[in-house]
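ok here's Enoyl-CoA hydratase:
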Amino acid sequence: MNKTIELLANKGQGNIKLDLNYQPGIALLTIDNPKRHNALSGKMMVEFHNAVSELERNVTNDLVALLVMGGGQSSFCAGLDLSFAREHVKSADVSLAMNELMHNTVERISQLPLITMAIVTGGAIGGGSELVTAFDFVCMSQTAFVYFVQTRMGVSSPWGGMRRLVAID
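and the structure:
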């Protein structure tokens, strides 16, 4: 995992912002890459992984909930930033390592001992749709939608979203 983190750490644009003191007992994580519909670059994947690690370290009786939202108003998360992928994901090994990192990160979100909620405005597409399946609750605006575009592209669901989707009651 450390080699993957080194490989992806400075690749692409956007940020993952974690505010552990958003409100009393509530942390806020923002997926912030609005020019790319909050698609995740390598840099953002590493920041996401690190933010979940920080949440795991800071779980106390005082922290009871995590809210996750997209930066801007148009999208929650468009999954993998395809311009980043075209430029930096040149081999199956890099693709596999990146998907293992995100599968691990998203799975750890689903296991956090916190109440978790995604606040979805606009699209949750591809990896963003997989991310949505990791939360205890999903609050969607009237214009929000979830689209597993990877099925249309003939791609599997490498971040574990399909497995979690069928388990939702």
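+1. The longest helix spans residues 92-111.
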